[in-house]
Every structure is written in structure tokens, then in C-alpha cells.
Design a protein that fits this description.
Layout: E1 2-8, E2 17-22, H1 29-42, E3 52-58, H2 76-79, E4 86-87, H3 95-108, H4 113-117, H5 123-134, H6 144-153, E5 158-162, E6 170-173, E7 181-187, E8 192-196, H7 199-203, E9 207-208, E10 215-216
Parallel strand pairs: 5-7
Antiparallel strand pairs: 1-2, 1-3, 4-8, 5-6, 7-8, 9-10
Length: about 250
């Protein structure tokens, strides 16, 4: 996965322009120019002759093989929250598909949710039907490519996968506009996916913004960098009814 940060060397006070992480085949000159032009047009301090600093960020993406590598213990950061804020996926195979089914059942109040969560046999036919319908094979692992295919299938949900218990540690975020989020966390020790039932609890934060994925003490005082839908064609924060204009519209 590759992400890009563009900053102005001349005006260091300018906020850097960020291009979210994506597969390298999805990062084209059209994507970079589209994001840059939207921001640059709104900022008079960006001049044609300014020197820009471009920083490329690369991260290695996870590949899940069920429970995968045996370990004496799970990371303390996940163990501290797994009982309440994180739903442990109880399966040895196809944990990514199981996690998505459990997350959707919880969101839709499916009557089978409790049995799915407990890892009972009722979930296995549903998982197999999902894999057959999508044509996704998880026998060799479930990485970003497979998550994107699931996102293409579940267009009414936004899949967000965290690489740890940090609000900004996102390894995948579906590019769909919807309030229905499926939050998963990837355990890089056991190479296993789990479901985040409560994002603020899992991250040990008082408030987490679904718009910019940052934490704050309160949703009222939080100023989302993605908040102005009239200013940029990005959905505003949906986690609070308090609308705070962006800096250029005050």
C-alpha cells in the first residue's frame, strides 16, 4: 500500500495534502492531480512556482491464514479490550469472511447474531455462500485484495480495517459513502481478523471521528478536516450533529 503527503516548502504553515493509502496500481497521476487540484484551488498561498515536498509512505499489508502462526500470547493492546469492545472471531479458517458476516449481523440486528458471534455451526453455511457468490478464495489468505473484493460486493457498507488499536492505524478504508461501517481489526501476531463492536472503547478514546479517523475529547469540540461538504466533495463527520465550518469558511 502506498500513500503520499505533499507539503509546501515555501509556506510551511500550509497544511500538507494527503493522499490516502491504496494499492500501487490504484495510484495514478490522475488521482494525485485530482486531490491536489481540489486543495490547491482553495488555498491562495499555493503558487505555481512554489517548491513542493512529496513524501511517499509505504506499508506492508497483512495476509491472513485463519489463526496462522501459533503464539504463546496475544498482544496486550488487544487483550485489554477483546472481552467488551472487540468481538473475537472463533474460527480456524476464513476469519475475514466470518468477521464480515458477524459485523453485518450485529449492525442489522440479525436474530442469528449471537450464534454467529459464539462461532456456532449456523455461520458456516452463510460464510460458504458468501465465498461462492463473490468467488473469493481465502485458502491462501485474506489480504487487501480480498477485502477490496468484499467491499465491491457489500456496496451498502463501508469496510474499515485497523492494523492496531490506534484511530489512524487504518490499513483499508472502503471508498463508499454510507453511514453503515464494518470495523475490523487485524491481529498481526496471530494473523487473524476480529470485529470491533465499539470503536471508542477499542481505541480507549472518549470520541473517535468517523470522518477523519482522529480522536478527540468531545465530538462538540472536534474539528474534522473532512467536514466541509460544500467546500470539498468529501462526506462530513457523521458522528456528531454539531457542524463546525472549516478554516476557509469561518
Amino acid at each position: 500500500m502506498v500513500g503520499i503527503t505533499i507539503s509546501n516548502e515555501v509556506n510551511l504553515l500550509d497544511k500538507p495534502i494527503g493522499i490516502s493509502f491504496r494499492r500501487k496500481d490504484q495510484l495514478s497521476d490522475e488521482v494525485i492531480w485530482s486531490v491536489f487540484s481540489k486543495i490547491a484551488q482553495s488555498n491562495a498561498r499555493y503558487n505555481a512556482m512554489d517548491r513542493l515536498i512529496v513524501v511517499i509512505h509505504c506499508v506492508k499489508m497483512p495476509v491472513c491464514f485463519g489463526r496462522g502462526v501459533k503464539s504463546k500470547g496475544r498482544p496486550l493492546s488487544i487483550m485489554a479490550h477483546v472481552k467488551h469492545s472487540i468481538i473475537k472471531v472463533k474460527t480456524d479458517t476464513n476469519c475475514l469472511a466470518h468477521a464480515l458476516i458477524i459485523a453485518i449481523a450485529r449492525l442489522t440486528k440479525d436474530p442469528n447474531y449471537v450464534s454467529y458471534r459464539k462461532g456456532r455451526n449456523t455461520i458456516h453455511p452463510v460464510v460458504q455462500q458468501l465465498l461462492q457468490t463473490t468467488g473469493i478464495d481465502l485458502q491462501i489468505g485474506g489480504g487487501v485484495h480480498e477485502i477490496q473484493r468484499f467491499q465491491d460486493h457489500f456496496t451498502e457498507y463501508k469496510i474499515v480495517v485497523y492494523g492496531g488499536l490506534n484511530c489512524e492505524d487504518i490499513i483499508f478504508e472502503g471508498q463508499v459513502v454510507t453511514e453503515n461501517r464494518l470495523n475490523l481489526v487485524f491481529d498481526d501476531v496471530t494473523r487473524h481478523y476480529h470485529v470491533i463492536a465499539n470503536l471508542t472503547g477499542a481505541m480507549s478514546k472518549q470520541f473517535t471521528c468517523k470522518g477523519c479517523s482522529k480522536s478527540s475529547r468531545s465530538g462538540v469540540t472536534h474539528k474534522c478536516s473532512e467536514a466541509c461538504s460544500d467546500y470539498l466533495s468529501i462526506p462530513p463527520c457523521i458522528s456528531t450533529n454539531v457542524r463546525i465550518p472549516c478554516g476557509s469558511r469561518n
